[in-house]
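Morning run. Coffee first, then this:
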Amino acid sequence: MDIIAEIRRRHLVSGESISSIAKSLNLSRPTVRKHLNTTSPQVYRRQHQPTPKLTGEFQQMLASWLSTEQALPKPQRRTARRLFEGLQAEGYLGGYDRVRQFVQSWKVKNVRPSVSQAFVPLSFAPGEVCQFDWSQEQVDIDGVLHKVRVAHFRLVYSRQMFVVAYPRETQEMLFDAHNRAFAFFGGVPQKMIYDNLKAVVQAILVGKERRFNLRFMALANHYLFEPVACTPASGWEKGQVENQVGNIREWLFTPRPRFANLADLNEWLSLRCRELAQRRHPVEERAIAEVFAEEQVQLRAVPALFDGYVEEMLRVSSTCLVRADYNRYSVPAEFAGKAVSVRLSADRLRVVHDRQIIAEHPRRFGRHHMEFNPWHYLSVLEKKPGALRHGAPFVEWDLPVSIRNVKDRLLKQPKGDRAFVDLLLLARETGLDALQMACELCLDQGNVTGAIVINELRRLLAPQQPVTINFPELLRLRHEPLADCARYDALRGGAYVVH
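And here it is:
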């Protein structure tokens, strides 16, 4: 997927020819053309996934060796290869790569950087680089303390910032943050710099080489920016956004802000980002907003928004529910027991079957919540109308007042649940507005039964008959027939007298 994104950037952005790209990447021209038309990553699956052999016992032994040798001079420390050979002598049967990865991760967590370091000042062209980072902040939402994850974006040249808050730090939130940031900036930079997030980087290779997450590369391929991952534990490689995290915490989250919901918080954060852009640029003798206006021209135009979701296959339960992210969502009853695709976005959940969206709900956070659409259970009510009284989807169904009043009256009558289900079946075709008006008419008359409400509903929906019918003069009869019942006697054989 990295090669696909590079080919598309070099051809679509830089205008490089297919022959030149094929020659530099050692690929055939048909392969380059194929990748230019590729919009989704190719997925390769192993037939057999090997099991890691570096178990807890060997991990403890390896960590103990690394801790002991940390106090030794660097020339006396064993390399990852020598440590691997030492583990083999202790009975380790796994591969070298697993040991090397463990050594690297241990050093990142335990080796402190030197106190005194020298850095080289960096310079970037307008529209070239944007840095990204996450932070955790505390917010009072509707009177309850919440820990939110804040996505930080910063254009390096102009220092223009953008921040947006989410309940979690997941991949679908990352996708939504990019959509919002590029819409706020009015364009897309050439490069994006990240930490080695799991949602971005799948594997850290030698040096700057990375194996990026396939779904994330679909985002980069859509917006045609080049992703760059920092060296582990080297936050200075994106120092501007690292400093921004501390500044935003001081400026916007101290004291703790209070809002009714997350949407109001994000609207306020976007407004504050524009206000903070009136501050003076640290290099230019102008406001950040003025420098940003200059840089905005160099940003690539934003195409259609990326549909940022994560997808998993689930089976619909017998109660017409799918369980996603510790919560349950309803699905139309005809799909009970079937496998469906569940797409989780930052603010909604969609259920797809046979490439068609069959259900859509606002996404719930927390645990053990249920999101019902009562219309999904209408076909079940048709067979089991008694479930109307205590069915969980119908207990808190927010129906219009007149329909609720009719429901209460019908349920007190014999077979009233069946009568109300018949009304719902009609409302599925006609809409709730027509049923609401029919219920209001019946309540005004003081006589409420299922048959009367259905009759009123059909009268409302019946086409109105014209009062008079005007015929053209050419269609009028010159001699209109007379109604003479005596003519019937002639047909029976009797004498007919013309009057």
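Residues 66 and 73 are 13 Å apart (CA to CA). Good start to the day.
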